[in-house]
């Protein structure tokens, strides 16, 4: 990987690596965990999975466009957004990039675009693969673009870190970038009256943007805890949600029988 780009070749990635590719002309990136054998486990909005049969351009679902290489490509449990795909279907003809861990603060701040690196340490590959395969069978909760997205999934698989504050920004660097940009612009707006030079305003805005991203990185946040994947459902409140659904179903049955 170079200084300005995390782009890699296929032969360079190893099982347990956090990989990503760009979608919609670099509008956003899609992340996953390479588990070996040219297979990737990744997290997607469930509604997109359901609607894949409507278009043949979505390669992650074998029912819409069967993968010619792997019969199990597109495997997922019912009502689950975690998917097992082959590397080709994951990339969709896009370039391959490898997410970096344990980068220095200076390197992190030099990356203008979020969702490429973190200062947090990664766990051993076997632990990462275990988490990914466990979540393939048990799910990763409901997809949320700001709090529980594909990058959050990959970051959890690599680190086991979970955000305690469920109302705040998730682990995703992309999400913090989206929030950080308008925040930086808002904070630096009054400085336009004090700085006649547009270059000065732009420099301060860029600095505020980078610092806001750094403050939400899981490697420096104080509201993260290490959670075993087997206990993830309880920590995310999935068990409570399942109990509430069961209670509602029981109540509905009782009303129907009366």
TrEMBL record:
Residues 20-166 form the LRAT domain. Gene3D superfamilies: endopeptidase domain like (from Nostoc punctiforme) (3.90.1720.10). InterPro entries: LRAT_dom. It comes from the Eukaryota. Pfam families: LRAT. This is LRAT domain-containing protein. It comes from Glycine soja (Wild soybean).
């Amino acid at each position: 990987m170079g200084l300005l780009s995390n782009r890699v070749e296929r032969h360079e990635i190893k099982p347990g690596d956090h990989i990503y590719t760009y979608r919609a002309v670099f509008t956003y990136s899609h992340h996953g965990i390479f588990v070996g054998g040219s297979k990737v486990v990744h997290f997607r909005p469930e509604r997109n999975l359901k609607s894949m049969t409507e278009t043949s351009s979505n390669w992650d679902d074998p029912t819409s466009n069967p993968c010619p290489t792997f019969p199990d490509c597109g495997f997922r449990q019912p009502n689950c957004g975690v998917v097992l795909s082959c590397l080709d279907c994951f990339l969709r003809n896009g370039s391959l990039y490898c997410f970096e861990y344990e980068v220095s603060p200076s390197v992190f701040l030099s990356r203008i675009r979020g969702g490429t690196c973190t200062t947090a340490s990664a766990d051993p590959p076997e632990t990462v693969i275990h988490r990914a395969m466990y979540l393939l069978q048990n799910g990763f909760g409901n997809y949320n673009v700001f709090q529980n997205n594909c990058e959050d999934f990959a970051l959890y698989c690599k680190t086991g870190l979970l955000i305690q504050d469920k109302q705040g920004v998730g682990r995703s660097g992309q999400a913090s970038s989206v929030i950080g940009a308008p925040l930086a612009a808002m904070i630096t707006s009054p400085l336009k009256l004090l700085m006649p030079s547009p270059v000065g305003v732009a420099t301060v805005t860029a600095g505020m943007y980078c610092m806001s991203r750094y403050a939400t990185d899981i490697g420096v946040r104080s509201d993260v805890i290490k959670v075993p994947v087997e206990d993830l459902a309880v920590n995310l409140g999935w068990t409570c949600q399942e109990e509430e659904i069961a209670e509602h179903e029981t109540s509905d049955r009782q009303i129907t029988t009366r």
